[in-house]
Structure formats: structure tokens, C-alpha cells
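Running log. JK asked me to keep both predictions on one page so they can be read side by side. First protein, sequence followed by its C-alpha cells:
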Amino acid sequence: MVKKKTKIYFWLKFDKKFFDNLFIKRLKNTSGGYAMTVIYIRLMLESIETDCILYYEGYFESLIQELALKLDVSEDDLNMTFSYFTKCGLIQIDENGNAILPQAKSMLEQESNWAKYKRDQRKLEKKMTELDNVQPLSNMCPTDIEIEKELKLDKELELELEQDKEDRFVDVVEANLGRGLVKFEFDMINDYLIGQNVSKDLFLEAVKVAVANNVRKFNYIARILDNWINDGIKTPEQAYQAQRDFKARKANKTMPSQSNVPDWHKENYVEQTSPEEQEKLAKAKKQMLERLNKLNNSQDNPN
């Protein structure tokens, strides 16, 4: 199974320093400089999903022609932009005709859809907490403020570590399912892990059981978890044992029942012995009858 990557959000973080850059500022006094600045920013945005590299795909004679069609700008404007920013070192052309944008890489930021979901959730929880626990700062002495800052930093570090764990957990879930997750599935994960105290290991076991049965729907995974919760199952080991017990019971139901009645007692029974065996039986029968006759004769004539 090919692993489908987690959905990632990319963006470029611009600040005042970008426009204070000497190469950008010089464009203000250049004919067509504004258009070239906009095109350069669009080139950076176009490159963020491919590690800040604009790949020449070979559909046209040059990368300029391909980008002109993608960005809907003229080839002349693109040539001017490439010429200027290549001289500045902000665009680098490799031996395969690909354009590398090092400044875009330094400005690039990203996060997974799960990380975004958790970040938005934490923001909402923080707002609710601030509304419920408003306390005037005037009541705090400097020592209290310092202590609160340290606690806040510790909490932020703890949240970052927890977020990394959650990202890895979601990666494993998506790898097993072979697809990315959507919002209602994130909500369902949150409900089981937090609302119902289901461990991540047990949740992953339910995912594996569903995939083994060729089902990748979360409703099916939820039914598996609900059954385990009702049966008091809390660990993957207990879940595995429950599956083994179920398969054993199922196998016993399909086994044919054994009868204690001998075959010769059954209706339409046909003797299936070979001629050699029949001859041995006849000989043994004859010997037994001879011994019985001798025994009877000895009893009739004791003297």
C-alpha cells in the first residue's frame, strides 16, 4: 500500500524586511519594477509545494514559456524578472533548467491539517479560559508575574511536544487507511481519545482491524471501538485476544457434529471389508467355534 501523505498547509511569511531588501527597493526606481516585484512574489508562491524549486517539465521550449502559461503573464515580463533576480542571486537556475528560489525557502512555513486543527482548538479554549478567569494584573507582584511567565513557557513547550506526538499518530492512521483525514474524522478521534479515554494504541488497533476487513470508513472503526468499550477492552492485547476468541467460536459452530452411534448400527449400513479381511474373519470365527465346542464337551464329560 502506498502511503498517502498528510495534507500540509504552506505559506510565506512576509514582513517589513522583505520590502526593505536593497534589491526590492531598487525596483521602485526601475521601469516595470512594481510588476517584476509582483511576479517574483507569485513565483515564490508557485514554488512552495515543491520545496521552493520551479521545475522545468519539458512541455515547452523553456521554463519561462511554461510559467507564462501557468501565471498568465507575458514572456517578456518573465524574462525581465528572471534576468533581474538571477543577477541578484535570488533566482538560481540549475543544469536541468529548474529555478531555485532560496529566499522563498527562508520564508517558508508549514503545518499539517491535524496541527492546524489542534492549534485552532487551543486558541478557542484559551479564549474561553480568559473569559472565565479574568484577573487584574494590578493584584500581581513582580514575582508572581515572573512565575506565571515560566509556567506559560513550560505549558507552551508541553503543548508543542504533545502536538508532535499527535502529528505522528495521525500520520500512522492515514498510512493505514491510505488516505488523508477530514474534519469530522478529526472530531471523532478527539472524542474517543479525550472524551472516552481510548488509548492511541487501541484506536490504531481498531483501524488495523477495519483495514484487514477491507473497510476504511470511520463509522466502521467507531463500531469496533464501541464494542470493545462495552466489553471492557482497554488494550490492544485484550482486543487481539477477543478477536482470537471470536474466531475460535465461529470455527466451532461450523464443525460437523460427532455421533457416538457405531456405523454398523446405522440404517443401510454396508460392510466394506476386503476379501482378504473377510477370509481372516472367517478363519478366526472358525477357530473360536472350535474352542467353544471343546469347552462345551469338557463341561459335559467332567471325567
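And the second, directly underneath as requested:
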Amino acid sequence: MVHALAEEPPADHARYCEERGRLTGPGNITLYREPIQVADFLQEALFQPVKRTICTGATLAVAGGFDYLRQQIGAPRKRAIERVIASPFDYPNQALLYTPNGLIPQYGEGEETYALNLGREIWRLIQASRGRAFVLCTSRRRMTEMYELISPHLEYTCYCQGDGLSRAELLELFQNDAGGAVLFATKSFWEGVDVPGEA
């Protein structure tokens, strides 16, 4: 296996590494070698031998159709039954795409200034939403940094993932907080989270 990762991959494969877990270092790095195109493999291993396959997700369609997905995964068009179901969310009234001007990520030299500017920007957005916000970060370090920087300056209850509470407990506390709570978390809160009501 190590030999397969060390040698130059075929043109239709890619090598990459991923850091996993809370700790950093070589013990938490996983190396991968995977095919770039999986359509032929899935056609042979899944779609031909299996009578029925259901592919479902929130972001499978492109421009209202499944042509791109079907091409990428090798799903046969002639047997496919496709449905695009309208979203139940009222995006025009309940969502905002916000892109800050001049906030360019900095690592190493300048990172401290970037973190302060990022914290100010997040603080402004929390004020605009009257709390009721998830602050989702790509690392535990950044999450903790933002929590420690911002939460002392907020009048809202702040929760931080990793404070000894489970994901379900944090969501329950957040949802039941009538004062507009703020939750600082990482990628486990990026998908599959539904907080109905005013929270």
C-alpha cells in the first residue's frame, strides 16, 4: 500500500493527504490515491448489478437537471427517474449571502491582524442578526480563537463546541435560548442541522 502511494499515480488517479482528528502531526495524516473519474467503476460495481439505486441530496442538480451528476457517476439515463423538489426554505427572506470587502486570509506573519479583523466582522454580523447565529469555522483552533475574541463582547449567550456538551445538547440549548444565542462550532454543524423557529 505504501508503495502504491509512493509511486507516480496513473494519469486517471490523484494523490492527496488529509489531516484528521483534533491533534496535528504525522500520526493524524491519511494519504489517499483515488481515481479522478469514478463513472466506469460505479457503472460496473453498482448500476449494472443492482436493480434499484437511490441517489438523494440537497445539491445534486445543476441548473435544474442531473446531466452533470449522471455523467460523473455513470448513472444510466434511460432507466433514471429524476425529480427536483423545491426547497421548503424561504431563502429570499431568511438568507443572506455576505462577502466582506478586503478580508483576505493571512497565515503566519499578519495572521493576528487578520484574526482581529475577522472577529470584528463576525461581531458586526452577530449584532445585525440579533444573535441567533452559528459561527462555523474550518478548524478547532480558529473556532476557539473566535469564541475567546468575540463572546466577551456580546450580550447574547454563547456556546462553543467542545465545552463538554454533545452536538445534540448544544443544538437543544441553542434552540431553546429565547435571547438569541450564538454557537461557535466546526464542520460537524455544517450539514444536517435544522433549527426551526426564531432561534
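Observation for JK regarding the second prediction: Helices lie at 2-6, 39-47, 67-73, 91-94, 111-128, 140-150, 167-176.
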